[in-house]
């Protein structure tokens, strides 16, 4: 079968110039920000996507002139569109000079990122890459630029700015100070809330795209129909008219972000761990299991919602109902083990804030604790209730396994809880007090014991 490319596919008008340099050209970016940018439509806002860890996506897109399709899987309908807004792709490791040029190019006015939660840990390569890029820009054109973080972090813009500043402070003073000053006056870091469920593409998805297009597309991505983007309107050098594509601009992104993290992502993690332990392959299967659905509702309504300052104009019960409806979409086939990845990075952002706030209000957050307990059992046991192995993909995997106790399945609930609560990368910083909270410990122990295999 012929491959998707400009020669084989009559794409509509594509942006002529690259105005956005995007770090982390994964499926999420291609199904979210790229689609918003294309729908906002402007000749100067083409995207140059940078792949960070592997050349795969670049190798898939290059022969296709950077065209790819988004297969939208609704409950009842499937839609497929070809996206042409990505105009260039580069593999950072192999093409440092091209990357430097893109960073320095004054036509590039936004540098955006989707590098997942673990991309923001202190020694992750991405902050270093960003700081070097900004330095190249300062020494080159010196033109102002916006750094747009599109990951699921609390106050993501501010968080990234702080990491960049810390990185500058660690450079030799002669370079670091001048750079920090230049950044303070020329670079903005607006916060954003991004939302679209984008499961990993499967061979079946690619076959479906091929059947629809009559062309092979190695870079196709799959997504739910829903998409939302809330952005703080604080740009240094202009931006696409993303509002034309449905994005919301507000001064209050923080509330949206916390709401989304605690309601959607927190519940997603609960479904992932409880579901995987019960042998459910997909999130839709997990939420169709009445016991798990009850826990999901409990987390949403009883634990998380009371901790939130709901943004103006948002109907909280409606939001909760929509989240459950989106998870129940069987056509997405989002794997529980995919959402279970990187739990050590996700739990603090999604669940521990709810737990801390409820405990402070004198309440016991039973369901949020159940989600954490399910993560603990997932880590400690590594098998579902039928004995099938569950992959532990996490930057702290070895540490977590060791902390959970080598006794594995036979380890008592207490040993697992004690061991994992002592992992300070998870239960530290803002959440350090949780590790010593007697009531939380007791609830976790009870729940871990209930979830350990051998129980009905
Ligand atoms: C999910 C998110 O993989 C995960 O941990 O919870 O990626 C989720 O699908 C998105 O944040 C939805 O916007």
Automatic annotation (TrEMBL):
The protein's name in its UniProt record: Mannitol-1-phosphate 5-dehydrogenase
Gene3D superfamilies (UniProt xref): N-(1-d-carboxylethyl)-l-norvaline Dehydrogenase, domain 2, NAD(P)-binding Rossmann-like Domain
Taxonomic source organism: Prauserella muralis
Entries under InterPro entries matching the protein: 6-PGluconate_DH-like_C_sf, 6PGD_dom2, Mannitol_DH, Mannitol_DH/Oxidoreductase, Mannitol_DH_C, Mannitol_DH_CS, Mannitol_DH_N, NAD(P)-bd_dom_sf
GO function terms (MF aspect): mannitol-1-phosphate 5-dehydrogenase activity
Mannitol dehydrogenase C-terminal domain location: 252-441
All copies of domain Mannitol dehydrogenase N-terminal, residue ranges: 19-243
Family of the protein in this entry: Belongs to the mannitol dehydrogenase family.
Keyword Hydrolase carried by entry: no
PANTHER family: MANNITOL DEHYDROGENASE 2-RELATED, MANNITOL DEHYDROGENASE DSF1-RELATED
GO biological process: mannitol metabolic process
């Amino acid at each position: 079968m012929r491959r998707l490319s400009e020669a084989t596919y009559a794409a509509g008008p594509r942006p002529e110039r690259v105005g956005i340099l995007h770090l982390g050209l994964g499926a999420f970016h291609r199904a979210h920000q790229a689609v918003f940018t294309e729908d906002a439509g402007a000749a100067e806002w083409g995207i140059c996507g940078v792949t960070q860890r592997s050349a795969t996506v670049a190798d898939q897109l290059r022969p296709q002139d950077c065209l790819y399709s988004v297969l939208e899987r609704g409950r009842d309908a499937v839609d497929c569109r070809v996206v042409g807004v990505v105009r260039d792709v580069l593999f950072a490791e192999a093409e440092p000079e091209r990357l430097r040029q893109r960073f320095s190019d004054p036509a590039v006015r936004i540098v955006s990122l989707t590098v997942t939660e673990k991309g923001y840990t202190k020694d992750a390569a991405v902050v270093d890459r960003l700081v070097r890029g900004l330095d190249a820009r300062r020494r080159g054109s010196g033109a102002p630029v916006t750094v747009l973080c599109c990951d699921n972090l609390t106050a993501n813009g501010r968080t990234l700015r702080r990491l960049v500043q810390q990185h500058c402070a660690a450079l030799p003073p002669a370079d670091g100070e001048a750079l920090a000053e230049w950044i303070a006056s020329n670079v903005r870091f607006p916060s954003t809330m991004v939302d679209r469920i984008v499961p990993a593409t499967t061979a079946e998805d690619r076959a479906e795209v091929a059947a629809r297009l009559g062309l092979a597309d190695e870079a196709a991505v799959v997504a739910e129909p829903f998409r939302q983007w809330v952005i703080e309107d604080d740009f240094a050098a202009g931006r696409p008219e993303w509002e034309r594509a449905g994005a919301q601009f507000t001064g209050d992104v923080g509330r949206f972000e916390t709401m989304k993290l605690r309601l959607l992502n927190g519940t997603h993690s609960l479904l992932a761990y409880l579901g995987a332990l019960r042998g459910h392959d997909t999130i839709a299967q997990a939420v169709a299991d009445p016991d798990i659905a009850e826990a999901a509702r409990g987390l949403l309504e009883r634990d998380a919602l009371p901790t939130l300052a709901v943004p103006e104009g948002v109907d909280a019960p409606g939001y909760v109902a929509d989240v459950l409806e989106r998870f129940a979409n069987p056509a997405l086939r989002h794997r529980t083990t995919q959402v279970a990845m990187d739990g050590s990075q996700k739990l603090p952002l999604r669940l521990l804030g709810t737990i801390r706030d409820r405990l402070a209000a004198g309440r016991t957050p039973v369901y949020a604790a159940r989600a954490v307990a399910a993560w603990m059992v997932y880590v400690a046991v590594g098998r579902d209730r039928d004995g099938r192995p569950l992959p532990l993909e996490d930057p702290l995997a070895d540490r977590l396994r060791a902390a959970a106790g080598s006794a594995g399945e036979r380890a008592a609930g207490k040993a697992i809880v004690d061991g994992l609560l002592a992992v300070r990368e998870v239960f530290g910083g803002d959440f350090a007090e949780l590790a010593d909270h007697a009531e939380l410990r007791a609830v976790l122990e009870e729940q871990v014991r209930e979830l350990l295999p051998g129980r009905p």
